[in-house]
Design brief:
The chain is mainly alpha-helical and 196 residues long. It has 2 domains: 155 residues, Ferritin; 33 residues, no CATH class. It contains 6 helices and 3 strands, in the order H-H-H-H-H-H-E-E-E. Strand 2 and strand 3 form a beta hairpin. The termini are far apart.
């Protein structure tokens, strides 16, 4: 069955946006709690910036994939280029699952480096077929380069965060008959009332 170019464009755009939607299923719940509580680097943009930026980037990815696909799947280099494109799209979704779903910035950092390389390879392969398609992916590569910095900085801040101290619920009987509990960074007993 032969698909005309209008349907190819729609399919390419829908597939890319679907990848973004799948990633957002892991991102959106974590933004409100886990991500909001993380220490972030100075250049971290506000959370509301990410959704519109990614929406535009997924549109550009869809347009780039369409420009390659319309050359014809009967060409070996087109099949290879689209295969690499799908692989990097899967890596893009996987990053959201690891960073936000698993809440693992360290593993996500390793994965985003692989994603960055996959995007670069996609640009190179696309460039051999369509220069326009390759250029459409440059903003994506630049944004992921920035995301590499953010991911690394958050990972460092997250891994250097001191472990919380949990004090036991035991109490100490004071001479006046009252009880005091443990508190403070070393879980020491609070001073008895007469000693204050």
């Amino acid at each position: 069955m032969k698909i005309n170019n209008a349907f190819k464009l729609i399919i390419a755009l829908v597939v890319c946006q679907a990848a973004g939607i799948i990633g957002s299923l892991f991102t959106a719940p974590a933004i409100a709690d886990w991500y909001a509580d993380l220490s972030k680097p100075a250049l971290n943009p506000p959370s509301w910036v990410f959704a519109p930026v990614w929406t535009v980037l997924f549109v550009l990815m869809g347009l780039a994939a369409f420009l390659i696909w319309k050359r014809g799947l009967d060409q070996k280099e087109v099949k290879l280029a689209l295969g690499i494109f799908i692989a990097q799209l899967a890596l893009n979704t996987l990053w959201s699952i690891i960073f936000f779903g698993l809440k693992n910035p360290g593993l996500a950092f390793i994965e985003i480096i692989i994603l960055w390389l996959a995007i670069l390879i996609t640009i190179i392969v696309f460039g051999k077929i369509s220069k326009a398609a390759a250029w459409l992916l440059v903003p994506y590569l630049l944004w992921v380069s920035f995301a590499v910095y953010l991911n690394f900085a958050i990972w460092q801040l997250w891994s250097n965060k001191p472990e919380p101290v949990y004090c036991t619920m035991e109490a100490k009987l004071c001479p006046d008959g009252s009880y005091v509990g443990r508190t403070g960074p070393n879980c020491e007993f609070t001073a008895c009332p007469e000693a204050r």
